[in-house]
Design brief:
319 residues, alpha/beta, five-stranded mixed β-sheet, three-stranded antiparallel β-sheet, 8 strands, 50% helix, disordered N terminus
Length: 319
Amino acid sequence: MKTALRFAVLAVVFTVAMFAAAADVPFLSGRITDNAEILSQTMRRSLTDLMKAHEDSTGNQIAVLTVTTLGGESIEEYATAVFDAWKLGQKGKDNGVLIIVAPSERRMRIEVGYGLEAKLTDLLAGRIIRNIMTPRFKAGDYDGGVEEGVKAVITALEGGEVPEAGAETGPVTQTSSGLNIDEPDLPLTQRILFGAFIFGIIGLFTVIGVLTPGVGWFLYFFLIPFWAMFPIIIVGTKGALYLLITYVVGYPIAKLLLRNTDWYKKAATDLRTKGHASIGGFSLSSGSSGSSWSSGSSSSSGFSGGGGSSGGGGASGGW
């Protein structure tokens, strides 16, 4: 009971700390709230006039927000909080759009109200971020990135054609792979958490495969696609390629080195003759389908995860 209480207290403290560290929702001071101070005064006036003209003719309300930090919060959650606090769009029509940019975390998002999702779809929002805003942000052109992003949003809302790629995007050398897999754009905290989860699982099975006679070679080939794809989320395509090469080369070498040790030979002999063996405190038994591991304990551990929600459609991106 005391242990459970301690965990409950720690959970509450952790939750409060996260909310305390999260970025505050700023006051809605106008169509452009440039708290990160990345836009020129001329650009702020120009975009304000552009968005006002669009609102006067359609009723759609577009706002731009730049922030100095997300405070460790995901941009999706923060954008939803700002959108809900600002109540963008007309009541009953939900025809608001929020463009939010966090230059310190190199993240951005286009949050779309429910009433405009048919016109400004997630696909279109992602295209605007990826092809129009991202190249300009990479070049340090925040004025141009935000300006062209706002114009593309207005074009989409007015039924125009959003270009597949922005014009005069400048030298951009990084491209997506043939599978359209981009480099990871998750915040550092999320990459660490996902990395601990992914590498913890495939790493555990890799160690089991290396230490296990017989079924270890089956696991070697079985885990190749996992090492090829899952690390992309954490370290990108190049990093995943390096990890895959390390796995493909290192696993057999470790396996061949271990097979000459006395305990490995004894474990292999015990499996053939007795049907079971003990390695490092784990009980290893053989069966018709290969080998299995057991720690000798009746307890088991489970995995759990959390999720979030957004006030509408949209897309996120990084540069």
